[in-house]
Amino acid sequence: MSEGVLIDNAISRTDVIKRGARIGAEIKNIKLTGDLPNQTIAAINGLLLEHKVIFFRDQGHLDDVEQERFAARFGKLAPNPTFDVHKGTTSILEIASARPPFRADIWHMDWSCRDAYPKISVLRGVVIPPLGGDTVWSNTATAYLDLPLPLQRLADDLWAIHSLVIFSRPSEADKNLYDEGVARVRFETEHPVVRVHPETGERTLVLGSYLERFVDVRKYDGQRLFDLFESHIIAPENTVRWSWKQGDVAVWDNRATMHYAARDYNDQARVVHRAMIEGEVPVSVDGRRSVARVKLVEPPPPT
Question: How much helix, strand and coil, in percent to the nearest 5, is found in the chain?
């Protein structure tokens, strides 16, 4: 498509600036709100599917409510089952450097411990350190294509257990996580290592920090398989790095990416707010669906 041509009659191609050869694009000259026309939302979704993660500068007009309204244009908002959401919203989660449980300095997909994990995440920069705090995203579809054919076939056949077990007070998650009276949350899901993207048909790798073990593979061998596949996902060729400014918004396809938030800003404050959109249960290359083995949100015992 040539420069200047509109995408779905909504966004000019000249306003789409690629930030990486394989992943990432910045979209200029658009003000995000929950009232954008349907054709603009369709254009943004198309760009998201194409580039996997898209960025918007200068969105300081957004507050939590309007961020949530914008996110909801892409599907049903996904609640956070473990921590309190921001006041006045149903899904906005604050991820702050001062709250250690929310550290994200490890490669992951959001909530892959669940069966129908979120399909889209919408993240807004609220307090950004003057240096550091970048986020890096990787394209798990091109990572799959980079695998030699025998390794693609191996990955196609593999399944893995993704799990989360945490103990937290709903509003005091950064305090002693193992005191008496804490809530217990556990999710465990069996996912294919390769899923078929429901909108693009691409094959994407499903790994990350929630992966506990491979099904029917010994731990020793499983760790080496994990390292092998993960090395392709996080290869520089498959990544894009975003240096945040206050008011920035990043939107990513959680079905086709993993991400890592660099923790290189020492004691400086870093606060971002996230909304997520409910996703579909992954389907493997042979048509089988992920299986939720455990879903548990257990309240603290009465005192």
Answer: 20, 30, 45
pLDDT string in tens for the chain (303-residue length): 344 578 888 999 999 999 999 999 999 999 999 999 999 999 999 999 999 999 999 999 999 999 999 999 999 999 876 666 776 788 899 998 876 555 589 999 999 999 999 999 999 999 999 999 999 999 999 999 999 999 999 999 999 999 987 644 444 444 444 344 445 678 999 999 999 999 999 999 999 999 999 999 999 999 999 999 999 999 999 999 999 999 999 999 999 999 999 999 999 999 999 999 999 999 999 999 999 998 877 665 555
Amino acid residing at 283: V
Name the nearest CA neighbour of 274 among 133, 110, 158. Answer: 110
Of 176, 204, 223, 195, the C-alpha closest to 282 is 195
Sign of CA dihedral 38, 200, 16, 77: positive
